[in-house]
Specification:
single chain; mainly alpha; Rossmann fold; Serine Threonine Protein Phosphatase 5, Tetratricopeptide repeat; 5-stranded parallel beta sheet; two-stranded antiparallel ribbon; 47 helices
Length: 896
């Protein structure tokens, strides 16, 4: 019986009961070592079985913390071949599988089980990182599934970070109250003298494991055996375990030490290494004393499992450094795979060893390419420790920091950067260190201050013949150029250096960099190059993303979307959520800049959710900025203002002044939508003013139409003439599609005659710019009405209203209807039931209408199939349909 945990048992019971009703959830049971987490975990398993639930269990193992998917593999190993084989490729040890893709497979698998399920995970703090990510991902998506997840985890800073990122409900176990502790002690160690009983109670401090272990020790050996109370309880219990091990035969102690240091659990492997350690044969019989003492167990597959995780740490701490190194050397001689051999050799090394460091760095590189980031990070950091060459050491630490950055582990990045010796770095590594210090050590956003230095470093790398490294550096810095407003001399020096790099045939990196750094000077050639690449079938998702981003920088949004949509599709299939987040951000940016509020909301909302999932704060900020622009287009004044204000505070504090143009864009469009034309003109004009902190030389290309519309309503068209005069030669030189389109509208408004409007509308490329075409129709229709040509104006105004409604630009649609009413024609605002749906529900509705099954929709949106089903049942009554076929028909009738 568990003592003193009635409330906690009740909380677990509620979780299980709700899961049996199809309302799944998760609970993380937390507390110090020995506080009773395992006992409550066992109670949860027993209660679930009593409710008829299927119970799947696993435990984090310290020796397996670097083995990708070890925890999840153990969790599902008993499902049987008919179900387990479907997860075999992912959970059978393939480290290159995305944890998010595995999470989707797990959700699908759980949804097809024929009974409610409890996933019971013990010692979650020792799960391998990707297994933790899979389970956290699954736990956040159980609201519509008959699945409960219970995880136990020990207190600690690492666990705090994991749980903060996972955002899972927690159940904390505190020490037992004095009367409860006394009751437990009397059960496990009856008959203690009053003085000895009080001593055990005082030393144990309400910790159940301490009461059990120290109470038993006191009953056997008396008060002299108790350790000083000044030691932490975990240390006292570890000493207790160490004392138990010390009574065992030498061969058994050797076996236990080797097993504690092994990154596997195979008994034969442990026996072989222990034989080398003892210089004599060690057999399974030598393990028996430890089994009899209940320190370890050996299952039917001959896998060794320790009774309590503290025993592992006790064995490690009680062994000398020489013994640990010898044990690792013995393991290196017997383990099967090269990677494990190298890792154990590295653990056995007594000092720097450049050859071993190189081998371990190679292991790290292979692990990183296989998406096993946690193994890669640990291996490369150890390789840095073993490095004899100080330049290699610095390079390896930065490589490890890059890997930690990819995992979203900012604390590890900062720790590794503090270890780097700036005086012992190659030029390229010095540049990398500078970039990371800005991002993680609080040195601030330097903007264009160091760009010239970086360019010269890249040229130094190029001159040294390191082409690949120079291309990587080029790609890394070009986005900084785009958002830093550097002077022309620095930019053109970048162009010079980039064009001197002899990139391999087919390499796209120089092209993409030039599109971002010199979209005017190299705009025409970059557009031609990008257009020629749009039909290539051999591009990787990363290359498609880079090309899409480059096309967006040039203002070629339709071309950009071609690349980005294909990239996003592949990234979804591969479960590469981090890069998918970036692709969605670019799609949202394109949609917002082109006036498509519906598409922008959809992409930005999903991007923000995924950025939160992956703790990518930079991309979350970008997603919020695009969402703010979309809300401004929709006429949601307060929401847009709130987003702009919050983003501005963040960017001001970070020194990202050039990016303030994005908040000015939101404010200007927001005022324009609300009819505050003078305010709109003032807000947007700041982006065009080189003397203003919010100036941006390329974002202004996207705002020419908006600025002109505001000016036309507030009497500032004379100033627009100056803008057009300045930007026209730039448009001719760059061929920027968004700038050309904006200037076409501005020219028609300034000409103020029917022929100019007709010529602008006749431009064939306007089919790719529905918002701008509709704005021309609205403005021209209004002009015709004022010329008393009402009949001629009505078709234009109807078309404009329909397009604006389809794009979700409600204020512009209402203006078109107001103009129609002024001509004598009444046109009601169409009721679009889709607007009643949340952005996620809209995504699900569109995919269902396209014919995708619930499972296919779940895979695309990283949800469980049951969640998709639940959403569809909510969607049907909202949009007034009763079936999937009716939903498809309704969606087909919509303008977009």
């Amino acid at each position: 019986m568990i003592v003193g945990r009635e409330a906690q048992i009740q909380a677990v019971g509620v979780l299980l009961s709700e899961a049996t009703r199809g309302r799944g959830g998760a609970l993380v049971v937390r507390g110090e070592a020995g506080i009773g987490k395992s006992a409550l975990w066992g109670e949860a398993c027993a209660a679930a079985q009593a409710l008829g639930m299927r119970v799947l269990t696993t435990a984090g193992v310290q020796a397996e913390v670097q083995l990708p998917y070890a925890g999840v593999r153990h969790l599902f190993r008993r499902l049987g071949p008919e179900l387990g084989e479907e997860l075999g490729p992912e959970l059978g040890g393939a480290a290159d599988e995305s944890p998010f893709r595995v999470g989707v497979e797990v959700l699908d698998l759980l949804g097809r089980l024929d009974q409610p399920v409890l996933l019971a995970v013990e010692d979650g703090h020792w799960l391998d990182r990707v297994s933790w990510e899979v389970l956290a991902f699954v736990a956040r998506r159980l609201e519509s599934d008959p699945v409960a997840l219970v995880v136990t985890a020990r207190d600690g800073e690492d666990v705090d970070r994991l749980l903060a990122a996972a955002a899972l409900p927690e159940l904390r176990l505190e020490p037992l109250e004095p009367d409860q502790a006394g009751s437990l002690l009397d059960q496990v160690a009856p008959g203690l003298t009053p003085a000895l009983r009080e001593r055990v109670l005082a030393v144990s401090s309400g910790n159940p494991l301490g009461l059990i272990e120290l109470g038993g020790l006191a009953a056997r050996s008396g008060g002299a055996a108790l350790l000083p109370s000044r030691l932490p309880l975990s240390a006292r219990v570890e000493r207790t375990f160490a004392g138990l091990v010390g009574e065992l035969p030498a061969a058994t102690r050797a076996l236990l030490l080797v097993a504690a240091l092994d990154d596997g659990d195979d008994l034969d492997e442990v026996l072989a290494a222990a034989s080398r350690f003892e210089d004599r044969p060690v057999t399974a019989d030598d393990m028996e004393p430890a089994v009899v003492s209940r320190l370890v167990g050996v299952d039917d597959q001959y896998r060794v499992r320790f009774r309590h995780p503290l025993l592992r740490s006790a064995l490690r701490q009680s062994a000398s450094a020489a013994q640990r190194r010898r044990a690792h050397a013995c393991l290196a001689a017997v383990v099967a795979t090269e990677n494990r051999q190298v890792r154990h050799r590295a653990a056995a090394a007594a000092g720097p060893d450049e050859a071993l460091a190189a081998d371990l760095a190679a292991v790290a590189t292979r692990a990183r390419y296989a998406q096993a980031a946690s193994i890669a990070l640990t291996a490369m950091e150890r390789a840095a420790q073993l490095s004899e060459d100080p330049y290699e050491r610095g390079s390896r630490l930065l490589w490890a920091a890059t890997t930690a950055d990819e995992q979203g582990d900012a604390a590890t990045v900062r720790r590794l950067l503090e270890l780097v010796d700036e005086a012992r770095l190659r030029p390229a590594d010095l540049a990398r260190l500078s970039w990371y210090r800005e991002a993680y050590l609080g040195t601030g956003w330097t903007g264009s201050a160091r760009l010239g230095v970086y360019v010269e470093l890249i040229d130094t790398i190029r001159s040294a013949g390191e082409i690949e490294l120079s291309l990587e550096a080029l790609s890394s810095i070009c986005l900084r150029f785009y958002w830093s407003n550097p002077d022309d001399r620095t930019r053109l020096r970048f162009v010079e250096v980039a064009e001197l790099i002899e990139a391999p045939a087919g390499d796209i990196r120089v092209l993409c960099a030039l599109a971002q750094v010199a979209p005017v000077e190299r705009g025409t050639s970059c557009l031609d190059g990008l257009t020629a690449l749009q039909y290539r079938l051999d591009l990787t998702p990363r290359e498609r993303y880079d090309l899409g981003f480059a096309a967006s920088a040039l203002g070629a949004y339709p071309l950009s979307n071609t690349f980005l949509a294909a990239s996003a599709e592949s990234l979804r299939t591969q479960g590469r959520i981090g890069m998918l987040t970036q692709a969605l951000t670019s799609l949202a940016y394109n949609a917002a800049a082109a006036g498509d509020a519906r598409a922008a909301v959809s992409a930005a909302t999903e991007c923000a959710a995924l950025a939160t999932e992956t703790r990518a704060s930079v991309w979350e900020l970008q997603a919020r900025l695009q969402l703010g622009m979309a809300e401004a287009l929709r006429g949601n004044d307060e929401v847009a203002t709130e987003i702009a204000d919050a983003a501005e505070k963040t960017m001001f504090s970070a020194g990202m002044h050039a990016m303030l143009s994005l908040t000015q864009r939101i404010r200007g469009i927001n005022a324009l939508a609300a009819g505050r034309f003078e305010e709109a003109y003032g807000q947007l004009r700041r982006v065009f003013d080189p003397g203003d902190v919010a100036y941006h030389p390329y974002l202004r290309f996207t705002l020419v139409g908006h600025l002109t519309e505001a000016a036309a309503h507030c009497g500032a068209l004379d100033e627009i003439r100056d803008v057009v005069t300045e930007l026209t030669p730039i448009a001719e030189r760059s061929r920027s599609p968004v700038l050309v389109t904006g200037l076409r509208y501005a020219g028609a408004v300034l000409a103020d005659d029917g022929a100019a409007y007709e010529a602008a509308l006749a431009a064939g490329d306007l089919r790719d710019w529905p918002f701008e075409r509709a704005r021309l129709q609205l403005t021209y229709g209004g002009w015709l009405r004022r010329q008393r040509q009402a009949a001629e104006s009505r078709p234009l105004l109807r078309a404009a209203a329909a397009t604006f409604d389809a794009l979700g630009a409600a204020p512009w649609a209402e203006r078109a209807r107001a103009e129609l009413r002024a001509t004598g024609e009444s046109r009601r605002k169409p009721i679009d039931a889709i607007d009643a749906l949340t952005p996620q529900e809209q995504q699900i509705a569109r995919l269902a209408a396209d014919g995708l099954s619930n499972r296919e929709i779940a895979e695309r949106l990283f949800l469980s199939p049951r969640t998709v089903t639940t959403h569809l049942y909510r969607i049907y009554p909202k949009v007034g349909v009763k079936s999937r076929s009716e939903l498809a028909a309704m969606m087909a009738d919509r303008p977009l």
